Amino acid sequence: LRLLYKNAGSQTENGPDYALINLHETLNNVFLKAIRSSYEGFEDFDETVVTASKNFADYQCNAPMKMSKLLKAKGQNIPLFTVANKIVECLDHCDIIDRVEVSKPGFINIYLSQFKLRDILDFVLENKLKPNPLLHPKKIIIDFSSPNVAKEMHVGHLRSTIIGDSLCRVFEFIGHDVMRLNHIGDWGTQFGMLIALLQDKFPDYKNVSPPINDLQEFYKQSKVLFDNDPEFKKRAYNCVVKLQSMSPDHIKAWKLICDVSRQEFQKIYERLNINIIERGESFYQSRMESIVKYLEKEGFLEDDNGRKIMWSPEASIPLTIVKSDGGFTYDTSDFAALKQRIEEEKADAIIYITDSGQSTHFETLKKCAIHAKILNPSNVDMHFVGFGVVLGEDKKKFKTRSGETVRLAGLLDEGIKRARDKLIEKGRDKVLTDEELKLAETAVAYGCIKYADLCHNRSHEYVFSFDKMLEDKGNTAVYLLYALTRIRSIINNLGSHCKDLNAAISVFHENEWKLTKTLLRFGEVLFKVINDFCLHYLCEYLYDVATTFSEFYDNCYCIEKNPKTGEIVKVHDGRILLCKVTEEYLNTGLNLLGIHTVSKM
Ligand code: ARG
């Protein structure tokens, strides 16, 4: 099924999809086809045969080496050079290739067509970087963010939120039908404690909103009572039972508690511009009851000291489906959620984004779901996308100085303050209007927090450092945002000269050509992103584009001015158009990372 997203870009009614054109894959396919028809025995050859070239060519094919070895093993002694030439003879016409050259002892150098690539960029400039609609969009459910009610949303949830949102954006961009789900922890024993406390302290909670703004405090209090007061504990359990059987009063109290948390979560989502549908564990209560019945009936459940557990022959640990007190667990709700997403939502793929610590949970869930015939892995893709922990600058788990978890709202506030200080330090407050400064500081603050997360390989831990992420050199959001505003101001400063740009994009100068090829790696990069669920490829690409642009701009005049009057005397139309199309790629890429861009900063 992975292949289906991989080829997504080419499955269109309207011919080739220039927005997502994958040059590398196109070349690889052409060469594979040639290889398969070159010599007997290679009909099923299936490897990556084309790689980016490290010498003067654009790409190269090193397959002759391997092929000649395989031929030798079959008693056919054919020189490398001959094999290479044979492949070239078998090549179909391909319009992105200008020419191929065989060099000794047997390398095939591939040169891209400057005219064709220029046409592609011209097309993108004209039509924007918008993929064609997919013939067969997939329903993709992405389960991300998912904080817990009555507990603080912490940096782990922040990572899940940032990575999840960006992955959603990429799949949406390609044209899939994405469902963004917030599987919040809003069900379970802790709600019994919370409701019992609410009943004690605010018996009038049904009419007046109780002061539980500090839910964490409230949670701590109830926990103390639960652990020390057997009477309270009994009542708490009773409350869980009542809640799970949907007693109106208990539901009312539960809703109040969830609302308080929800408002906090929502503030964070609004600040970070995150769209997500809340569908917490509670949503699955009746489905949990039926899945337990099903598993029981089919004989999948085993008794383990009063607990009901489920093993799969493949898994190293079991799932706990029913606790000894009869309650359901995290495993139960995930099992029911998986079934609901497959059967009711008709998902083609389900992607879970949490810290890597939960990988065993999801692996076990997958194996058990396959075992119970709920998940058929040839129809539905279930992926776990894990990420490493966030560290503080002391390389220890990210905590406040007093050792508490860092509050997200406070963290975002600090980002804003630091971004503002940085802009003022550069004297930008003297150039920008108040409104522009405000836009710039939020773009920088949230942009740098998101980018710092996304630009690291997600499976590694990363160090959260405002100083690092706010640097304006190197692979940072600030650098990219500056690169973009620079291009925008080049274009804006043209004023009336911009109207009648009448040329094709310039691609023939060495630096223009390098930028062209860099831009057109976009499709290849995006497919790598969805294949590995890794956004750092996109970050690296954008950083490459920005640095290559800057080389181009340093070496190629775009606008010539009279040195005395500052008046524009010559505009290099084709280069301005190259600036414009670069802007299109950078802006689109930053949007896919969930980073808001500005025109001035
Ligand atoms: N609420 C969980 C946590 O904070 C994350 C939920 C992830 N999604 C899921 N379907 N289990 O760790």
From TrEMBL:
SMART domains, per database record: Arg_tRNA_synt_N, DALR_1
Pfam families, per database record: Arg_tRNA_synt_N (PF03485), DALR_1 (PF05746), tRNA-synt_1d (PF00750)
EC number(s) per entry: 6.1.1.19
Spans traversing the lipid bilayer: none
Keyword Nucleotide-binding belongs to the record: yes
Gene Ontology biological-process entries: arginyl-tRNA aminoacylation
Keywords: Aminoacyl-tRNA synthetase, ATP-binding, Coiled coil, Ligase, Nucleotide-binding, Protein biosynthesis
Cellular component terms per the entry's GO annotation: cytoplasm
Catalyzed reaction equations: tRNA(Arg) + L-arginine + ATP = L-arginyl-tRNA(Arg) + AMP + diphosphate
Recorded GO MF terms: arginine-tRNA ligase activity; ATP binding
Top enzyme class: ligase
Domain Arginyl tRNA synthetase N-terminal: start-end pairs: 25-112
Entries under InterPro entries matching the protein: aa-tRNA-synth_I_CS, Arg-tRNA-ligase, Arg-tRNA-synth_N, Arg-tRNA-synth_N_sf, ArgRS_core, DALR_anticod-bd, Rossmann-like_a/b/a_fold, tRNAsynth_Ia_anticodon-bd
Positions of the DALR anticodon binding domain: 480-601
Alphabetical list of HAMAP family matching this protein: Arg_tRNA_synth
Family note: Belongs to the class-I aminoacyl-tRNA synthetase family.
UniProt-listed NCBIfam families: argS
Name by which UniProt lists this protein: arginine--tRNA ligase
